[in-house]
Design a protein that fits this description.
single chain, 629 residues, alpha/beta, D-Maltodextrin-Binding Protein, domain 2, ten-stranded mixed beta sheet, 22 helices
Length: 629
């Protein structure tokens, strides 16, 4: 009888265990991506439409480069990732082709025995683009890749993957076109690598760069795409590469993936790439916004809806490579959030008022000019260096040769960094009678107005070799004017945050000589930590009634600085974030007073005296009775 009951109990427990195991064994879709914006955006789209279909998702975004991620999906480590038909042909040992349909058919046939298949293509082809700046292409007379053969040597800047590709990489391209003289600089695949590629093109250290046709940097920096006139590069149409067993086991997966087919145009993809690479938006929120706009996600679905972190910048801060790098670093300090960048003539005041969390400003913004010199505002603290801006004083080629020879100078809006620096320079050298015209116009508009006689000087704060200035300097109508009056006047002691600097010779067209100027450091700034008034909610601000400013936390500062990598030390004239101030531990060498310990010590001393007293007492054996008793 006992045995019978025991068997029944065991059977019930076994069934319960099987049910429990079955209930928790719901397979997830494992989604991967390559480490660049486009692949991560497309992978997020795959993940989000799958989740919307009720399929659990495990993300590995990003996962790795083509050799690693393709092997991962073959070996059942991943279920799906976005792949390009041209890339697939190359890595499967086949000759690439420019025929998209033929390429897809060939790839599908090769993938089938491996248990893989391509579902519907997203709708665009992301071909390789060999790019140059407009100016460099014009100077060298280059319009096609074949035109590079006319150059004595070509300086390439490309990503690591491009030099390692077996059939459609740099060396194969050079052989196809007969390009013999070349040197190559490589950078890692991804957004940071693209920053460095574009920077090398803009500063002239490289001639030709490698990007993708859907990269936002091409339009943003007005780059020329060289014509592949021999048709070397194959077509790179992209589609989800997915394991066949995942399509079979995950109900609704195939239908979810097919919803993405043909939905994305090249212009759509370029705009999304720009949002991630240059505007520091997350791949997930960009994917969600696009899917929602196409009606592929219901309201509130997906992984988007990230909180917005407001960032305010001086008007002189352009949407350049350094700004994009700074924005991505800021986002790393606020995981899960997107950024909203605006330019403001009084960025630190906006920061203190709680209108923004982080500011990108020059050292001059931390000061106002009083009767006796610069006065610290005390409303913000710097925590990372972004770069430097140099003063560019520009006149007509036949105009004034010094700032003292000018009567009217145009510059940025009132309160902007350029306005502050110009005001300080003029007053310190005794030229307060020079009229300053503040304007919201860009540098080209200001220079054009000068050529019409509206003013005789334009004062800008910009990085050395700034492209906009270089473009107008090519005309030969303008020249840079040095600021030797200020540099030789010993004003650094009073204006310690304005440093003497030099713009090297030939930094710009029509600039054969070095130019003496000044520069200021550009930094990321946080609201200053202030004492909280009684009854207020949230951190207070320096004299701001809203009490809405929230200083950047020490952990966020650490993450942002780590993302920025190696940087200069913050100018000692700028207030620094508290988390960066070295901690000094003061050791108190005085003996501490403690009542209970003191009492114990006194008792121990008394006990010791009593013991000594007992030791020296006469022994009873030595005691003698008096004789008269």
């Amino acid at each position: 009888m006992i045995t019978k009951y025991l068997k029944q109990v065991v059977a019930v427990l076994l069934c319960a265990a099987l049910v429990a195991c079955g209930g928790n064994d719901q397979k997830s879709l494992r989604v991967g991506a390559k480490p660049f914006a486009e692949s991560m955006i497309l992978a997020e789209m795959i993940a989000q439409v799958a989740e919307n279909a009720g399929i659990p998702v495990e993300r590995s975004i990003p996962f790795g480069l083509t050799p690693k991620i393709m092997e991962a999906v073959k070996q059942d480590v991943l279920d799906v990732y976005p792949e390009y038909n041209g890339t697939s042909l190359t890595f499967l040992g086949q000759a690439p082709t420019s025929d998209g349909e033929a390429s897809t058919a060939a790839v599908s046939a090769l993938f089938k025995p491996l248990g893989l298949e391509l579902t519907g293509k997203f709708g665009f082809s992301n071909d390789y683009a060999m790019v140059m700046t407009q100016e460099r292409a014009k100077d060298l007379g280059v319009r096609t890749i074949q035109d590079l053969t006319k150059l004595g040597s070509v300086k390439y800047v490309v990503d690591d993957d491009f030099v390692q590709r077996p059939a459609d990489g740099l060396q194969q391209m050079n052989r196809r076109y007969g390009i013999t003289g070349s040197s190559t600089t490589t950078h890692p695949v991804g957004t940071e690598g693209k920053d460095k590629i574009v920077s090398a093109l803009l500063d002239g250290s490289s001639d030709v760069g490698e990007l993708f046709m859907t990269d936002g940097q091409i339009a943003e920096y007005d780059l020329v795409v060289l014509d592949d006139n021999l048709g070397f590069f194959p077509v790179y149409e992209v589609a989800p590469l997915v394991r066949s067993d995942a399509l079979a086991s995950l109900k609704g997966l195939r239908e979810a993936l097919e919803k993405l087919a043909g939905k994305i145009t090249p212009a759509d993809m370029q705009a999304m790439n720009k949002a991630v690479d240059l505007d520091a938006q997350s791949a997930s929120s960009v994917a969600t916004a696009f899917l929602s706009s196409k009606g592929l996600l219901p309201e509130g679905a997906g992984s988007g809806g990230a909180a917005k972190i407001a960032v305010v910048a001086d008007p002189g801060v352009a949407r350049d490579i350094n700004t994009a790098r700074a924005l991505r670093a800021i986002r790393s300090g606020y995981a899960g959030s997107d950024l909203d960048l605006t330019n403001n003539a009084s960025p630190l005041e906006s920061l203190a008022a709680g209108e923004a969390r982080v500011a990108i400003v020059g050292a001059e913004s931390f000061y106002s000019l009083g009767d006796d010199g610069p006065v610290a505002k005390g409303i913000a603290e710097a925590f990372a260096v972004v770069g430097y801006k140099s003063a560019h004083l520009i006149s007509l080629a036949n105009g004034a040769d010094s700032i003292g020879g000018m009567s009217k100078i145009a510059t940025g809006p009132k309160g902007s960094g350029a306005d502050i620096v110009l005001d300080m320079l003029l007053k310190s050298i005794g030229k307060s009678d020079i009229e300053v015209v503040n304007s919201d116009d860009n540098s080209r508009a200001l220079l054009l107005a000068m050529s019409k006689g509206n003013h005789d000087g334009v004062f800008l704060m910009a990085p050395s070799k700034e492209r906009g200035i270089a473009t107008v300097m090519r005309s030969g109508f303008y020249k840079l004017v040095d600021l030797s009056e200020w540099a030789q006047g010993g004003h650094t002691a009073r204006f310690s945050f304005i440093r003497p600097a030099t713009i090297p010779a030939n930094s710009y067209p029509s600039q054969p000589n070095a130019i003496t100027t000044v520069s200021t450091q550009f930094v990321l700034a946080s609201p200053a930590k202030t004492v909280q008034a009684a009854g207020e909610v949230g951190p207070g601000t320096a004299g701001i009634d809203s009490s809405a400013a929230i200083p950047v936390s020490a952990s966020a500062v650490e993450s942002i600085r780590e993302a920025l990598g190696a940087m200069d030390v913050i100018d000692p004239a700028i207030p620094v974030h508290g988390s960066l101030v070295p901690e000094i531990t003061v050791v108190d060498k005085s003996l501490p007073f403690s009542a209970d310990i003191s009492i114990i010590n006194i008792l121990m001393i008394l006990f010791t005296v009593w013991v000594i007293y007992l030791v020296f007492l006469p022994s009873p054996r030595d005691f003698k009775m008096p004789e008269d008793l």
